[in-house]
Amino acid sequence: MYMTLRDRPGHGGPNRPRAAVRRVSGTVVLLGTVSLLTDVSSEMVASVLPLYLTAVVGLSPIAYGFLDGIYQGASALVRIAGGYASDRSQRPKWVAAAGYGTSALSRLAMLPAADFAAITTVIAADRLGKGLRTAPRDSLIAAASQPDVLGRAFGVHRTLDTFGAAIGPLIAFALLATVPGSYDSIFVVSFAFAIAGVAVLVLFVPDLPTAAGTGRAGLRRVIAGVTGRNLRRPLLAAALLGLLTIGDGFLYLSLQDRDDFAARYFPLLYVGTNVAYLALAVPLGRLADRVGRGRVLVAGHLALLGGYLLAALPGGGVGLTLTVLLLLGTFYAATDGVLAALASRLVAASARGSGIAAAQTTVVLARFAASVLFGLLWSLQGPRPALLLFAALLAGAVPVAAWLLHGIDRPAAPTPTEPRTSGVPR
Question: Within 259-351, where are the H helices?
């Protein structure tokens, strides 16, 4: 349904049918398949990690907050490097492959990890791999897509990605139901899925160049593109909102604290969120193409605010828990791919990977700080007051972010080294 006859976005010339322009490239579908397999792997581990760390390893909320911050933010250390390496080398596929491979190996490394230091190291390695691969992969998506369907292209990719993220916790739940406490089996099966994802990337995904050549002049263009005025307001908005975005694990632990359903089926909470994300990623991506990506990004944080408020209620129940999961999935569908699509159109093609990485790095660094702070507040005041405080701050931050993103969806003007084309990214 989403494939074209050619992966190159310029195929067919200016007279190609409009319907073909609106379809999503086969490269996007292949990259989505890679992410599907990888997310089966990563979400198998992520869905049991909060319980494993707090109930089995015995970490305190502060220690878990630090590890959750590592999980959220360690990738920031290499995102810019991954984006620049993609732009510099003209080989984004192989930069991404190195990141996927690093994350795959970390699954096996969880087997001998038994203390705080070892688990921290393994989680950091997994997230560093994610940071290295994300910008090159998203740069490939942007290079293979028409500008007027970028939101849809990222939505299709995130839909496949999230389908894998929904399957992963189901497999983990089945393994634990079959053999209670069998965390080692989760790590081994997770590794197998991750290796399958690397194989699809290496064997089938074309290595599309994402920019004209780079050298010293190219580095200057990258720096200018990333630090230019087009990205300043989006980065400020992303940082402000990211500082008030806590990790999923904390929300799920909050639900578990008050709700027998959430406690009994903890790994399946991730499934609920991912199913909502799966259903909404493409529709919200298409909506972002029509009404503006900045508007959809802000609306997604309103959904997150609703999730905070409902999770902070003293009483619970199945319906309320499912509503929180729906709001959290809506938040991800409205922000994840939409932010990458927004950033990719605000910088020149030669700095596309670095521009996407700059936006993503800003978000993960801010979320690292948010996780550490929330863990501290949880320890001092409990989950409900901490959630209410973050909800109040987010309610104040959303209008500021909306002002910063107002009218931001205009594409970057062409540079002297990049003459205007018919609108097809090179």
Answer: 260-264, 266-291, 293-311, 318-344
End-to-end CA distance of the chain: 24
Identify the DSSP state of 25: P
Residue 181 zone, left/alpha/beta (φ > 0; ψ -120 to 50; rest): left
- Beta carbons of 399 and 301 less than 8 angstroms apart: no
pTM, rounded to two decimals: 0.66
Residue among 18, 4, 19, 329 at smallest CA distance from 165 = 329
At 83, the amino acid letter reads G
Pairs from 236-239 (Cβ < 8 Å, separation ≥ 24):
236/404, 237/294, 237/297, 237/400, 237/401, 237/404, 237/405, 238/339, 238/359, 238/362, 238/363, 238/366, 239/362, 239/363, 239/365, 239/366
The tens place of each residue's pLDDT in the chain, 426 residues long, gives 334 433 444 444 444 434 433 578 899 999 999 999 999 999 898 888 877 877 777 777 777 777 777 766 666 667 777 877 887 777 889 999 999 999 999 998 888 887 778 888 888 888 889 888 988 898 888 888 887 788 788 888 988 987 888 899 899 989 988 888 788 899 999 999 999 999 999 999 988 776 544 444 444 555 555 555 677 888 899 899 999 998 888 888 888 877 777 667 777 888 888 888 888 888 888 888 888 888 999 999 999 999 999 999 887 778 888 999 999 999 998 987 777 778 777 777 666 767 777 777 788 788 888 888 998 898 888 889 999 999 999 999 999 999 998 877 654 444 444 443 333 332
Tokens of 193: 């899925």
Quote the CA–CA distance of 365 and 133 in Å, as a whole number: 17
| Whole-angstrom distance, CA of residue 102 vs CA of residue 209 | 23
Domains detected in the chain: 24-405 (1.20.1250.20)
CA nearest neighbour of 104 among 204, 193, 18, 26? 193
- Say which residue the tokens 């909320």 belong to: 61
* Residue 215 burial by Cβ neighbours in a 10 Å radius (0-12, 13-18, 19+): exposed
